Structure formats: C-alpha cells, structure tokens
Amino acid sequence: MTSASTIPALTLRNGALLPAVGYGFWKVDRPIAAAACVNAISAGYRHLDCACDYGNEQEVGQGIATALQQGLCTRDQLWVTSKLWNTYHAAEHVRAACQRSLSDLGLDYLDLYLIHFPIAQKFVPFEQRYPPGWFSDPEVAQPRMEEVRVPILETWRALEELVDAGLVRNIGICNFGTSLLRDLLASARIAPAVLQVESHPLLVQSKLLRYCQQEQIAFTAFSPLGPASYYSLGMAVASDSLLDNRVIHCLALQYGKSAAQILLRWGVQRGTAVIPKTVTPERMSENLNIFDFELTAEDMAAISSLDQSRRFNDPGVFCESAFNTFCPIYE
Fold it and tell me: Which residues have a catalytic role annotated?
C-alpha cells in the first residue's frame, strides 16, 4: 500500500517537491468537500489541488484544519495549490484574490498559485458574487461573459509580488500553450514553476510536455482519467470513456490493476503529476496505489497511440454554448 512518504515527486527548478499524485477538488460538492479532504489526507494524499472557481475552498480549509488537528499530517507536509480566477487578472485585484483563497483555506501561504485560464474577464467585486463564475451578470435577460484587455505579463508581475510577500511559494499557469509559455519565459522575473493542462491518452500533448521538460516547467495533468467528469456537463459521452477502452482494459487485466490505475501510472511514468478526483475512500486509496508496478515501453506506446488530440475542457467550445461568448484559446 502506498503511503505519503513513498509518493514520488517532481522537482521544481527551485528544488521544491510537487507530489506526483494529487487530489483534485473540481466538482467536489460543497457539503462533502471537508470530509473528502480529510479522507484524502488520511489515504495519503499530500497534494491538494484547489481553485477559487471550484466554490469549495472554505470547506477544503475545514478539512485541512481537521486533518491537522487529528495529527494526520503537518502543514509543511501538504502541497496546496489554488488558482487565480479570470475576473481578477488586473494587477490591483490579484493580491486580494489570493488573500481570499488563503482565508477560505485557513492558510498563511500557498505552495502554488496558478493563473487559471489565459482569459481576462470583467472584474466582479467579492461582495457582489464569489466565486464570480463566467457570467458578468447572471441576472440580465441574456447573460454573457465579458472579456477585458489585461496583458498576461501584468497579471504575472502581480503573482511575482505574492512570492516576494511570502503569500505564495511557487507560481505557474494553467491552460497555456507553447507560444504563451515562450513569451512569458522571455519576460518573467520568476519563471513559471508549473503548467497545469488537460492531458490523458486521448490528449497526449507530447510536444507541450517535451517543451515544459526542456524549460524546467513541471507538468500537471488534470482530467487524467479522461472524459468521465464531463458527461454531466454535456461535454463528453460514454463512448469516449477511457476506463472502458479495450487497450486500457487489457493492460488492467495483465497487471492485475484497475483501468484507472493504468491511466494514472501512464501519467506519472511519462513524467507528469496527475490530480484525479473521486469522493470514494476506496478509490482514493486505489488511485495512490500505482507505484508497485511499471508499464513497459511497449505498453506506454500503446496507450499513447490512443491520442486523438481530443480536448474535453475547451473554452472555444463551452464558452459559446454555456456562456454566450465565443472564446477560443488553443487555436
């Protein structure tokens, strides 16, 4: 059985250690988020992936406090990530947004703070709505998201100041491609430590991973189990399933593992961190128990060959269908 002490880590350029398997809080409902947090830490997770937009940071904070009180871990054994939402990209809003996440999580510092999307939206005051979501005003007859012109570098400079102030230990980005990364690296005083993007065998992103490894940017894969989280959102259908894929299923039988364990092992073995989400304690443990076997080069290649460049979390699709605004970022 895997314990917290045996989970390997990705070494960041400053020497910090990012645990290779984390627990993702996206779509963990608020009423169960605190218990899920305690259960995850009890199972051995030390990497907790949070965000303002997930709407459950207060509850995650309650779970962290309970885990610390119970002696399940110490604060310095936890890696807690949060993310800056799109409405707070202007320099004057970044610190307040970070401090709100810190307050909700009950923490003095974040191990990692990420720009959630390379999308700047119109500011929504905390007292008006928090988290603000995608709509500028959901009460109008035809609500829509509203973009504003804020340079990524302005936002990044404000994140660098959070590091200077000791509020954040590492900073990074989500949902960036190589062009945005290259531009940011040319301008940053503090280089991005981590890139978090969607990645699974249907969206291998081999060039992006190789570029990150070349530039010493750790790569975290969200949705590492594929499309399951997107069924309820109408962004994927059951036939897209990787958990039912024949190649994955055959390897699971061969190794005596679950399909999820094969997918997660592929993710960490290719040098990425993975942040699966489940609220079932048994599956929490199962998702960590992937370090007692190794896929062969042939197995890795067979899984990677499933690549269809199939992206489920694409603002260029869902922003228009759900938020009445065409907002492509990957093209």
Answer: 54
8 A C-beta contact, residue 247 and residue 303: yes
Q: Strand pairing of 17-19 and 218-222?
A: unpaired
Q: How many CB atoms lie within 10 A of CB 11?
A: 12
Instruction: Please report, rounded to a whole number, the percentage of residues in the chain having pLDDT higher than 90.
Output: 95
Asked if 47 and 273 touch (Cβ cutoff 8 Å), the reply is: yes
Closest-CA residue to 110 (of 153, 56, 165, 170): 170
Instruction: For residue 69, count CB atoms less than 10 angstroms from its CB and return exposed for 0-12, middle for 13-18, buried for 19 or more.
Output: exposed
User: Does the pLDDT of residue 1 top 60, yes or no?
Assistant: no
Question: What is the pLDDT, as a whole number, of residue 2?
Answer: 65
pLDDT digits (tens, 9 = 90+) for 21-32: 999 999 999 999
Residue 296 and residue 303: Cα distance in Å, rounded?
11
Domains and CATH numbers, the chain: 4-323 (3.20.20.100)
DSSP state of 233: T
What are the Cα distances from residue 2, in Å, to 18, 211, 300? Answer: 17, 31, 22
Decide if 112 contacts 220 (C-beta within 8 A). no
46-57: average pLDDT: 98
